[in-house]
Design brief:
By secondary structure, the protein is an alpha+beta fold. Helix content is 40%, strand content 20%. A 5-stranded mixed β-sheet has the order 1-2-3-11-10. Helix 3 crosses helix 5 and helix 9 crosses helix 10.
Length: 207
């Protein structure tokens, strides 16, 4: 198991080169899709953050998941390519031009009364592509910050549109790190998650 250090005063958990904000293991969260309808794929000021390696995967599987995309999304992707660069210079998913504050992801798919889904993930679950979706989407509400020299910070992002998810998590007793077990393991490994779980037990027992 990876070494774990915890500064209880500042509630920062360090596991190897990864710094985790304490509220990732103390706060509750569980997506409440029935209420939000996937609006995190529509509302915002830019597309979803992308890793460089993910762009290749999106390009490889594009022909497989693009039939699920909206026509406006296809046009946006064709215009900008499989990624865009936001105002901060970061790689993000392309978005459909719209009203300020509404940056609909080009890879979004809609059903019924504007119920939003990820076209890439839908294709993945259908067994038609190997890439699930950008890790930044899969890890939400955790946001990852690159600290340089191989070090990263995992922080909890509190977005008003996810208010119902925080309430549902508290009602069902599901912590953020528990809700995100699968993407955390996918991104950082089983040993990391085991160490994080042990730190969570200690931190929550002390509170």
């Amino acid at each position: 198991m990876e070494d774990c250090e915890m500064n209880e005063y500042e509630s920062i958990i360090q596991i190897g080169e990864i710094l985790v904000s304490g509220d990732v293991v103390t706060e509750f969260f569980c997506c409440d899709y029935e209420k939000c309808k996937g609006c995190c794929c529509v509302i915002g000021d830019s597309g979803a953050p992308l890793e460089e390696s993910e762009i290749e995967e999106i390009e490889r599987d594009y022909d497989k998941f693009s039939p699920l995309m909206e026509e406006a999304g296809k046009k946006a992707a064709e215009a900008s390519g499989f990624f865009a660069v936001d105002r901060d210079g970061d790689l993000v998913t392309p978005t459909v031009p719209g009203l300020p504050g509404y940056e609909e992801c080009a890879y979004a798919a809609f059903e019924g009364d504007r119920n939003c889904f990820c076209a890439i993930e839908r294709c993945f679950f259908a067994g038609k592509c190997s890439f699930r979706k950008p890790i930044s989407c899969w890890l939400y509400p955790i946001r990852v910050t690159d600290l340089g020299e191989g070090r990263v910070a995992l922080n909890l992002h509190r977005w008003p549109i996810c208010k119902d998810a925080f309430e549902k998590g508290k009602k069902e007793g599901v912590r953020v790190y528990e809700f995100l077990r699968e993407p955390l393991v996918s991104a950082y490994g089983e040993e990391f998650y085991s160490a994080l779980s042990e730190a969570a037990k200690r931190l929550n027992a002390a509170s």
